[in-house]
Design goal:
Largest sheet: none
Radius of gyration: 23 Å
Structural class: mainly alpha
Oligomer: single chain
């Protein structure tokens, strides 16, 4: 009843008013990052102030705006808790030798020419098996970043391959939360939804792998100094006891995720097991392990490349990222509660008449939600709720809508620096989303294919008689 009253009390602003905070957001971020070279926090706060002033003009009082900010932030709390756990896990895994061991094996087995393809495929498999892009990036991805750095491969390329693979597996895994959320919102069946996504997602992956192969061949054609790799491996073996027993912790984490144990206890369990490995295998004290979990591991080998590679992790390393999420979700909460997001969405829907324009409207809205809200769950829920009836009236099966929600909502979320997904990857891989965006080939290609299918009608399945909203 309270929710219904809240919806009734939501303002219905004109499009012109709704676009003012959005234009302000883009302008503040562009000027702040491009010209002033500052972090996005203050520009986001300034945009939230503009949204608040617009909300006052729409008749909202301070209590409503404060509740909107708190509600927006509360939506991000699960992500914030996972970020804290992953910071602890990375600190423990580096200090205990788990990440150095995976980097060592990677340097030993992978060559520059095949690395990007291999990184994408490895992350695809792990993410599909676990249903979690974040867990894949926070564990396997961290190790692959280290391997890529050791092989002198530009880190934006490495991060792009990791993100492409992680989101491919997440998107198609029946264990993934977004893969379950999209058909639930659209009114389609889970496995119908997954099969329908294959039409856009598999070709996207194949094209991405070809592009990674071409990049790899260009990298391998350059002279590669193998002595630097040998030096890295030598320093790692001197600094750590690289016992195969260290792999027990990553395998335990993967097993827990496959068993559908929630991400937060899984990451904390992985950190705890990593701490035990550090005490048992590296002969570290409890205080040293706990300190690494808190402030991260500080490598002091004397080798600048190794020290740069391994000095990372810890709870405190995530505070920048967490504060960015708080600022972004405050803006998103105000935009949602004031009705400005809904106003923008209604304006888009007004011009969507054909199947192609419906797909374009859905893709555009999902991407806009990732920029304005900014959270991938909102980019699925809000457009799904909005366009469900429109797809039904156009005699289109609900799985067409659920596929669009994932093609654009799930896959573009890590490309936005202030989206919860982009912020997480920045904090975990230490690569800015704007830097890896040109190399996240799957995430770029998939929405484009979705648009092509929409306008050509290929794989756009009509609704069948007897389908009850295709549920």
């Amino acid at each position: 009843m309270a929710d219904e009253q809240r919806l009734e009390d939501t303002p219905r602003p004109r499009l012109f008013i709704a676009l003012i905070p959005v234009v302000s957001l883009v302008a503040f971020l562009f000027i702040g990052i491009r010209f002033l070279e500052i972090a996005p926090h203050i520009p986001l706060i300034l945009a939230a102030i503009v949204a608040a002033l617009a909300s006052v003009g729409l008749g909202m009082n301070w209590k409503s705006m404060q509740d909107a900010v708190v509600n927006g932030i509360s939506m991000a709390m699960p992500a914030i808790l996972i970020l804290m756990a992953i910071g602890i896990l990375i600190g423990a895994w580096v200090a205990s030798g788990i990440v150095p061991l995976m980097v060592y094996y990677g340097l030993k087995l992978l060559s520059p020419g095949i690395f990007l393809v291999a990184a994408c495929l490895i992350c695809s498999v792990v993410s599909f098996a676990t249903g979690s892009s974040w867990s894949t990036i926070g564990t396997v991805g961290v190790a692959l970043i280290g391997v890529g750095q050791g092989l002198d491969i530009p880190l934006p390329m490495v991060a792009g391959a990791i993100v492409s693979g992680a989101y491919f597996g997440d998107k198609l895994s029946p264990l993934s939360d977004t893969t379950n959320l999209a058909p639930a919102v659209a009114g389609s069946n889970l496995f119908e939804h997954i099969r329908h996504m294959l039409y856009t997602t598999l070709p996207s992956l194949l094209i991405a792998l070809v592009l990674y192969g071409l990049l790899g061949s260009r990298i391998s054609s350059n002279s590669h100094d193998t002595s630097s790799v040998d030096t890295l491996m030598s320093v790692l073996t001197d600094q750590f006891n690289l016992s195969p027993w260290l792999l027990a912790s990553p395998l335990a984490v993967i097993a827990l995720i496959v068993l559908r144990i929630p991400a937060l206890p899984t990451m904390l369990a992985g950190a705890f097991l990593g701490g035990l490995s550090g005490i048992w295998i590296q002969d570290m004290s409890i205080g040293e392990i706990l300190n690494a979990m808190q402030v991260g591991y500080l490598s002091e080998t004397g080798n600048p490349r190794v020290d740069e590679l391994l000095s990372r992790g810890g709870l405190e390393s995530m505070f920048f990222t967490i504060s960015l999420i708080l600022c972004a979700m405050a803006f998103g909460g105000l935009m949602e509660r004031s009705g400005m997001l809904a106003s923008i969405a209604r304006s888009i829907l007004a011009v969507a008449k054909s199947a192609g324009s419906l797909v374009a409207a859905t893709v555009t809205t999902c991407m806009s939600m990732n920029i304005m809200a900014p959270d991938q769950y909102l980019s699925i829920i809000v457009p799904g709720r909005m366009y469900k009836e429109a797809f039904s009236k156009a005699n289109l099966h609900a799985k067409n809508l659920s596929r669009c929600l994932e093609d654009a909502g799930t896959l573009t979320s890590p490309l936005v620096p202030w989206n919860t997904c982009g912020i997480f990857i920045l904090g975990t891989l230490l690569v800015n989303p704007l830097a890896y965006l040109p190399f996240a080939f799957l995430n770029i290609i998939n929405p484009i294919l979705s648009l092509i299918y929409g306008f050509t009608g290929w794989t756009m399945e009509p609704a069948k008689k007897g389908d009850s909203t295709q549920s």
